[in-house]
């Protein structure tokens, strides 16, 4: 007679505790707050789905989502091609390789609020080198009062901060390609574009998918840099989902609506990332 020993399940227990502490308990707290109108400790009333219905019809949320999608689309459209081009231009061997990789990696090591402070000063037309250079060209540049200037500043800042990630991933993918593919392409008389299109780009698809997903998720959660540089302004022109959430949770102290906003925000990120990931993988499967 075989006797089942279930003690092995105890080995899984630490993992379950960590997952519960990291994800399940905080999320359940948000769900609990999202269905209540909270006036203080021990003073809350059940409101059901009222906050969700109110937020889904909220123009502030829709406009913040629209600005968020525009920002994420713009930075991805710039950073991914630019990162690939820089990776292709990097030296393949020699001492300069390490120097280039170190220089490229420096922006990635900087804390987000440091990047915000740096660009907040750099882009100022009175004391900042970048803003003064643009003003010297005869352009009235002021990111604190002009919407276009504010968007230009935050997009350039994000491209400067995160293009290196795409470069490093693409460069590692390029270095992993078997030289036999290049020799075969050379024998066939392939042009440089044909080598990139039919050899390098398919081999880079895996690392580029990871890089694009990382950048998409990070761009959807951007907060510190914008808070330092523009504070969401001028007006609310650079106020994205994270700034709107903080304003609701801390500025207005509406905990119930803020919890509902957090759940909607989380679902938007998960949905966009899933749709984007499926579209990329289906495109790769079609090739």
TrEMBL record:
Instruction: Give the similarity note.
Output: Belongs to the binding-protein-dependent transport system permease family.
What UniProt keywords apply to this chain's record, in alphabetical order? Membrane, Transmembrane, Transmembrane helix, Transport
| Main subcellular location | membrane
Where in the cell is the protein located?
Answer: Cell membrane
Instruction: Indicate what this protein is called per its UniProt record.
Output: Carbohydrate ABC transporter permease
Task: Indicate the transmembrane segments per the record.
Answer: 7-25, 69-90, 97-122, 150-174, 195-217, 258-277
Q: How does this chain sit within the bilayer?
A: Multi-pass membrane protein
UniProt domain ABC transmembrane type-1: residue ranges: 65-276
Looking at the Swiss-Prot or TrEMBL record, what is one Pfam family this protein matches?
BPD_transp_1
**What InterPro entries does the annotation carry?**
MetI-like (IPR000515), MetI-like_sf (IPR035906), Sugar_ABC_transporter (IPR052730)
- Top-rank taxon of the source lineage equals Bacteria
């Amino acid at each position: 007679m075989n006797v089942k020993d279930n003690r092995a399940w105890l080995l899984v227990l630490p993992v379950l505790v960590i997952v519960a502490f990291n994800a399940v308990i905080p999320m359940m707290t948000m769900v609990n707050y999202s269905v209540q109108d909270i006036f203080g400790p021990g003073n809350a009333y059940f409101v059901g789905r009222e906050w969700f219905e109110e937020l889904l019809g909220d123009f502030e949320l829709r406009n913040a989502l629209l600005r968020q999608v525009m920002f994420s689309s713009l930075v991805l459209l710039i950073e991914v091609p630019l990162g690939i081009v820089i990776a292709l231009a990097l030296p393949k061997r020699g001492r300069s390789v390490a120097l280039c990789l170190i220089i490229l990696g420096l922006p990635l090591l900087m804390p987000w609020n440091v990047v915000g402070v740096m660009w907040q000063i750099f882009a100022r037309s009175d004391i900042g080198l970048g803003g003064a250079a643009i003003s010297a060209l005869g352009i009235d540049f002021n990111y604190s009062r002009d919407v276009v200037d504010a968007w230009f500043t935050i997009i350039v800042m994000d491209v400067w901060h995160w293009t290196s990630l795409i470069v490093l991933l693409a460069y590692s993918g390029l270095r992993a390609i078997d030289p036999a593919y290049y020799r075969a392409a050379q024998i066939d008389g392939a042009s440089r574009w044909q080598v990139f299109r039919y050899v390098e780009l398919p081999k880079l698809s895996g690392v580029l998918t990871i890089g694009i997903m990382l950048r998409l998720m990070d761009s959807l959660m951007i907060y510190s840099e914008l808070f330092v540089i523009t504070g969401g302004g001028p007006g609310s022109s650079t106020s994205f989902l994270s700034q709107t959430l903080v304003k609701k949770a801390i500025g207005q102290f509406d905990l119930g609506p803020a919890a509902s906003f957090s759940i909607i925000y989380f679902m938007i990120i998960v949905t966009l990332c899933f749709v984007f990931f499926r579209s990329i993988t289906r495109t790769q499967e079609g090739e």
